[in-house]
User: Fold this.
Amino acid sequence: MVRAPFSLVLLLFASAVAMEQVSPSPQMTESTRPCALHPVNGRMCVSEEVLRALLLRYVAPKLPENADENGEVVLHVKIPATGGKATKISVISGDPALTRSAIRAVREWIFIAYLYKHDPMAIEGDLHIRFKAAG
Assistant:
């Protein structure tokens, strides 16, 4: 009689473990881990204002022909602890024609290293690239 409830509990536990293995939480995978405001795995999230304040070299994006003159592209960038150029640029939103131009420009941007408690820290954040008509 004791054996049946024990088997049922074991079966439910095994099912729960199997379900966890099939659908891992977003925090378990590096590529989908959300940005943190404190150091996590040697990196942290900063605001767009901080990213722009760390810019050492800025290259303006060129407005492609036949593109919307007042468009905007949002990119997510990762900057290494040593500073320099972005190691990864991901598109969050924007017109594909403008996106290509924005990525080309941001690839050339150079950032100063970010210090957190006197230690260099890899950072990431979102950039809004706005395109305006010349003139």
Summary: The CA atoms of residues 1 and 109 lie 71 Å apart.
